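Annual report, structural modelling task.

Input specification for the adenosine-5'-diphosphate complex:
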Amino acid sequence: MRIGLYPGTFDPLTLGHIDIITRASTLVDRLIIGVAINNDKNPLFTLDERVHLIEKEVDRLKLPSVDIKVHPFKNLLIDCAKDVGASILIRGLRAVSDFEYEYQMVGMNRVLSNNVETVFLMADANYQSIASRLVKEIAKLGGNIESFVSDNIAEAINMKFNQNK
Ligand code: ADP
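The model returned the following structure:
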């Protein structure tokens, strides 16, 4: 059984992430979406909130032939992969700017564990430029984020900013 781990902060999940999840689902039998606590990034949503939002989206995707689980993690990525039995790490690549960081991550993760291969996927051209950080900035300034996230996530983001006002 091929188990893939797609890790990220997902603060929050965008249409870019959903595109990668859909593509990854054709490559593995089980896909674990690993939600990193990533407090350094000062997330807008708590770890629990991010997990619940992703679970709802995944339910709605109804992807056949793949078992998708959402798994929060606070430890090292490579240890998380071991915990869930993943042999494939899935990462999305957007621009050259992603490449440098990902290149280093693969190199260092390989030293930590040689049992995991990283597979990079590119989202559809319509979704490649989407970044959670920018979606939040647009929403904060009252812009329309409908083209970047699902309706449910857009509502959750807008609620956060209204709460914080
Ligand atoms: P991280 O903190 O690990 O970068 P993110 O939630 O920002 O977490 O991203 C998780 C993964 O999804 C990363 O591999 C990132 O490159 C990828 N990703 C994010 N947005 C997109 C997008 N629009 N298209 C393709 N990949 C994306």
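The beta strands are 3-8, 30-36, 67-73, 88-92, 117-121.
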